Amino acid sequence: MKTLELANKYYNWMVELRRDFHRHPEPSFKEYRTSKRIKEELEKMGLQATTIGETGVVALLKGDKEGKVVALRADIDALSVNEETGLEFSSEVPGMMHACGHDCHAAMLLGAAKVLSEMKSELNGTVKFIFQPAEEMGSGAKKMVKEGVLENPKVDMIFGMHIWSDVPVGQVSLQPGPIMASGDVWKLTIKGKSCHGSSPWQGVDAITCATAVLQGFHTLATRVNDVRNPIVINVGTINAGERFNVVPAKAEITGMNRAFEEYSHSSMPKWMEKVIKNTCEAYGCEYDFKYDCICDPTINEEVSANLAKEAVEKLIGKENVINIEKVMGSEDFSEYLNHVPGALMFLGGRNEKKKCCYSHHSNFFNVDEDALPIGASSYAQVALDFLNR
Fold it and tell me: Angle formed by the axes of helices 371-388 and 11-23, to 10°?
């Protein structure tokens, strides 16, 4: 296919870009250098790039003929992880690393922009390139949507991708339906009454109450929730007590929940608070419970996913477009899917021979750069097929 041929032509350029982004990782909403570099490359292609917020970047490519609008999205922020890969292009920022592949995403979308710029005469419509900040915070997409990224011109379909360390390089996972879970964060403060540790009956032990609450949480996933729609209620931190011989008056607990199905997703805070309320009442404690939905489940719209699947099959063959199990991690690409049809694919980046086999967010995370032309051409081919169908 022409898109893959052109993407391979720009392989070295994309590798250079990816490594430049990798050397200079930036935290969420502070991707100043990254967005500046992206704008420079887009403008070299003759595209007008606009900043959204402080670090989001959007560019339009209008085909020679009028038509629909397709958006292609990449995220650009890094993580507060200390890199230990030993790569010659390792992070130059202590404590920051592109440990989730967003450096690749940015390079591949720039590659797609370059490919489609050369195919402008074949486009029946407009391509909108979205470089989004703060995916790792789960709030970048919401900010971009709020700032109008899906309007002027109005987007008809959106497509994104995520490099994936569990999928071998040369393969892609792409299917309709739920593919990634929601991500909700919560904080629970249990309030008791402190006293001397030698006479606990004179106080109200917040730790004992907290332990009972957590045991109650464990029953929700299988005894209240329908197990055919899996959920995760994860406790990440527990902080309580000030001294070994004092009954603690306060216990603070934080966690993050995951779900795929809307009923379970919306019901979890209610289920949890019922356990909290009844347990605290039994133990004589008070409580404060805060629950925030950060990301909705990522659910690929059927028509968009099937169109994208057919487009990618043209590039790498049907045998290399696979289905993997749903992922309990979250992606704020879901925010775009709440507003327009679209699909997200997982792009294989695994290669044990090159030591590209560590999980996302690992200090040793790396990807096989041979995935870059596949990603760039997939972006381009999906856009081309949608506009010209």
Answer: 110
